[in-house]
Amino acid sequence: MRKISLMGATGSIGMQTLDVIRENKEQFELTAISAGRNIAETRKIIQEFNPRLVSVQLKEDAEVLKNEVAHGTKVLWGEEGLLETACHQDTDVLVNAVLGSVGLFPTLRAIEAGKTIAIANKETLVTAGHIVMEAAARNQVSLLPVDSEHSAIFQCLQGENTKNIESLIITASGGSFRDRTRTELEGVTVDEALNHPNWSMGAKITIDSATMMNKGLEVIEAHWLFGIPYENIKVLLHRESIIHSMVEFHDSSVMAQLGTPDMRVPIQYALTFPDRFARPRGGRLNLAEIGKLHFEEMDFERFRCLEYCFEAGKAGGSMPAVLNAANEAAVARFLNGEISFLDIETLIEKSLTKHELIKQPDLEAIREIDSETRRFVNELNLG
Amino acid sequence: MRKISLMGATGSIGMQTLDVIRENKEQFELTAISAGRNIAETRKIIQEFNPRLVSVQLKEDAEVLKNEVAHGTKVLWGEEGLLETACHQDTDVLVNAVLGSVGLFPTLRAIEAGKTIAIANKETLVTAGHIVMEAAARNQVSLLPVDSEHSAIFQCLQGENTKNIESLIITASGGSFRDRTRTELEGVTVDEALNHPNWSMGAKITIDSATMMNKGLEVIEAHWLFGIPYENIKVLLHRESIIHSMVEFHDSSVMAQLGTPDMRVPIQYALTFPDRFARPRGGRLNLAEIGKLHFEEMDFERFRCLEYCFEAGKAGGSMPAVLNAANEAAVARFLNGEISFLDIETLIEKSLTKHELIKQPDLEAIREIDSETRRFVNELNLG
User: Does the keyword Isomerase apply (chains A, B) (predicted)?
Assistant: First the structure.
């Protein structure tokens, strides 16, 4: 029986993690969850899985839930609640599926507590990869990727020696706007941007797919997870999202992981690793039915956010934290109808240009840079 | 320094194995070779690699070579020479790249001698898989596949537990005649059949590609190499031969190995396993340049030899030996201009129908069945 803490239980990855646990009730037990403000959904999860610890974002919600839950269920709130969820004493694996840079501190706390971490929170590695990977190595903790791309690379590397890697090839569907020119991107609406061709995901990550920022953040994450220089990480446009990513070795052999676009497969793999459990109910890949797989070079001129990510990653230090905070704030303004789609790029670029690099920022510095960048983006008037 | 015996040195796989050794002279030493009747090429190999043992097919050729080679080089001939090549005392790895069922006995001798075997000779496993795999298990000897398809599957299985396999998916380019109807196949010439779209190979195996017998023999070989029932082995038409084969796991994840169509990559992998050596001179896979990969269901009506292979494999016992001998004899008759292309199928089918199954044939029985089937095919008048 593997005991699981799930941070971000009511989000897209969180709900799919619950599906995996539901399908394997003899193997998995849900020990602790954290959720945001979706109390109706949180209540359902408590009823179905009966976790020992529940944490929500707001104090008032926690107080309502406290009166409802069974005796022995602990209810917490806020950052302290998140931290307790992350390193609950009975937990074997923490699934970190919260959105945004709020995922960083709980991850570090779980690493110190020696938990295995299934990591779906990009920002943890993007903003503080140097700190997180050092802590993981020091505590001999495994970081198992949940993202389909990183899970694919991780699967391709089983039984292999990382010294033999020539390059990581991260595939990209191209997002909602892959067939639009830059001019055509000028007037796109929030609804258009939220319509992803292959994957069903949350709003922020869907916008990040449309700008290709999502792919760029994955590049930075891959750099940290697998210890590969940016020069050896490639992004390949692959519309069908069937090949989830690849690894090329020095001998020119390329390993790839394929599947239908179903996040439950990489989630389950992270929870069962190094074993695999059957998924009798999941859809099977049928390549003959699909018929063709397409591949194209990535257009860095068209997808500037991707270029910014490579640049920020290579600059290192505090730069990726600026990139990430600027993007989060800019996407929020776009979803809020305050700025246009292409303004997201502009705000990120301005934030990066303005920032003076700190080479080895500590957690306090990263937190400050994060707040400062958000303030800058929120106050900038592009009119 | 890994010491290599190479059987079938002047054939297509043999010459490419020599390329690999040539490119890695600090890591590999050629200890022993066997060749057929191509004495000019054998002489060149002796001059370049200076092996300690050389074996050729005919006594008279051996006697000519004996007078030419340096002192200390042993020259042998015939079956006895093959057997000595297979288990030369200084050899670490035997590359068995001979064509046809002549490869069986030397493989068994090498297994008894505890050599690691890089196996490119299909007939060894097709005709006597039950005997060979039992001997390999008993002597704890590794059989490393050289064929691009089996090497791909072998690479996909690294770090995995075979209990989690759902199916093996062997890809097939479809050979020279993949776009012809059965009616169009009636009058095809030997030259047309020898023109393979993707791979440069020997004559017999190129004809086997055109009839799809090659793919069928690979199915039987995969059954033995990986211990997977025929019901869980699929063949998928994939024109570009870029995905060399795949493994689907119970969790619906599919692992694939890709590369340019260059046999030196799987050959080198078998020689360096579990490590990989760089191939700085090899062509790299560029999927963006290739643009599209195609996949189609296999047409078992059109490619009857493939169906015969599944049937013979499932029947088991002596049936695959009949299939293989009938095919070898029939292809020889086709290359000799005696029969038409579709007569190959007919001769195989008649041989299988006529044969009475022996459930656990020993080596003597397999040898007899082989001769008997060849005689039957050679004497049958289809006129």
Answer: yes
Interface A:B, Cβ pairs < 8 A: 150
Residues of chain A contacting B287 with CB distance shorter than 8 Å: 169, 236, 238, 295
Contact by Cβ (8 Å): A194, A176: yes
Distance (Å) from the alpha carbon of A223 to chain B's nearest alpha carbon: 22
Check if the interface score ipTM surpasses 0.90. Answer: yes
Structural domain contains residue B270: no
Q: Is B163 on the interface with A (CB under 8 A)?
A: no
Q: Which candidate from A159, A278, A279 shows the least CB-CB separation from B158?
A: A159
Look up the pTM and report it: 0.96
B215 and B296 assigned to the same domain: yes
End-to-end alpha carbon distance in chain B: 57
E runs forming strands in B174-286: 233-237, 243-249, 254-258
**A128 within 8 A of A107, measured Cβ to Cβ:** no
Quick count: other Cβ atoms within 10 Å of Cβ A61?
A: 18
Per-position pLDDT tens, chain B of length 383: 999 999 999 999 999 999 999 999 999 999 999 999 999 999 999 999 999 999 999 999 999 999 999 989 999 999 999 999 999 999 999 999 998 778 899 999 999 999 999 999 988 999 999 999 999 999 999 999 999 999 999 999 999 999 999 999 999 998 888 888 888 988 899 988 888 666 666 788 889 999 999 999 999 999 999 999 999 999 999 999 999 999 999 999 999 999 999 999 999 999 999 999 998 777 899 999 999 999 999 998 888 999 999 999 999 999 999 999 999 999 999 999 999 999 999 999 999 999 999 999 999 999 999 999 999 999 998 86
Q: Decide if A381 is inside a domain.
A: yes
